[in-house]
Design goal:
The structure is a single chain. By secondary structure, the protein is α/β, with parallel strands linked by helices. The strands form three sheets. It has an eight-stranded parallel beta sheet, covered by helices on one side. A seven-stranded mixed β-barrel has the order 13-14-16-17-20-15-18. The chain has a two-stranded antiparallel sheet with strand order 8-10. It is elongated. The protein binds pyridoxal-5'-phosphate. The site of pyridoxal-5'-phosphate has 17 residues, from helix 10. GO terms for molecular function: ornithine decarboxylase activity. One of its GO terms (cellular component) is cytoplasm.
Amino acid sequence: MQRFLTARDAAMSLRPDAPVYCFRPEVLAADARDFMAAFPGETAYAVKTNGEKLVLETLAKAGVTMFDVASPGEFEAVRSVAPEAGMIYMHPVKAQSDINLALQTYGIRTLALDHEDEVAKILRIVRALDLDPSTITLFIRLQTKGHAAYELSKKFGAAPAHAVELLQRCDRIGFKVGICFHVGSQIEEPETYERALASANWVRSRAGVTLAGLDVGGGFPAEYGHDPRRRKPDMPSLAEIMARLRADLAEWGFSDLPLVAEPGRVVVARAFSLIVRVLLRKGRRLYINDGIWASLSDSWTGKITLPARFIPDPARRSRKGDPKAMTAFRVCGATCDSVDILSRPFWLPDTVDTGDWIEIGHIGAYSLSLRTRFNGFYPDTFVEVDQPFDAGEAPQGYASLETMAD
Ligand SMILES: *Cc1c(COP(=O)(O)O)cnc(C)c1O
């Protein structure tokens, strides 16, 4: 892979017409190590956030020994780059054949569920393979209520009384049991984990079974850009959230249990930026070579503020506009689909024009893992970049949280 100091250097050297992912392995390793150092238990990276081979390899090298997986594709992705790593299969609703594959072929021994029919599915395979249930840990996924940019509590999780019943049922069969929850992605209130822990404590005290572990899931917020037109949201740093989580774990009596976390976004977001090219400027519209069907579907929801850096094409001799003025541009994606327009404007220097590049920062999470081949566009060019996105010149632009009138 070609290596550059900055994305600007990459753009100048390659003059890319296709989107380019700028991978920063040192940033990824450092963010993973920071998380592991701060979390008082095992760290299982959530593969769905970004399952690229180079990401999994870098994480394994940085000392991540456990991965949260949800499908045969993810089992294989992890096994092929980190054969010694442990896997936990935390999807609450699984195909019978995938459970069989997990237990028989991949030796996975930790699974999650939120319904008795899932217990029956797992038990059927355990019996067929003649496994001892006590070698398997089943985590009961608890419903949570909290505030995250992306809520998942409506889709998965057993209500507390139901969770009690599931814990007792699995315990009676002879499985080891634990409690897990996933509060959603990019939490917006620091109290979110505490509420979930209070609920887990209620369930534990009613169930009266010995717990083998507690899994607090993901949701830890990544730091994105800040829209200067908005008051800075007072979201605490990861260090503060972790300090609070440790205190809450102690308060609710969970500190002596084996603990697991499944971070995704907070580990990988800063590890990539994306160089896109302006294919056409039409008034206040920028048509770029990426979009919501490729790397920018997460930004399309408008819930995060992506920082951006303007990389003017030096080959352009004349420019219109005031280089110091910032303008809100409507950003249109590469496909011919009319919904492929970012929901929020990008503020960029007024002089942006056809042929220029924009580096969009912190897109490592839920961007390239969500890209499609729609309309024949599939960004797949990677370079390595040494300098962290935030270490360079201050980003001049950002995707605003405001909506924009056409
Ligand atoms: C997606 C997911 C994660 C990762 O969430 P982040 O918000 O990216 O940290 C963790 N656990 C489960 C069960 C998930 O579905």
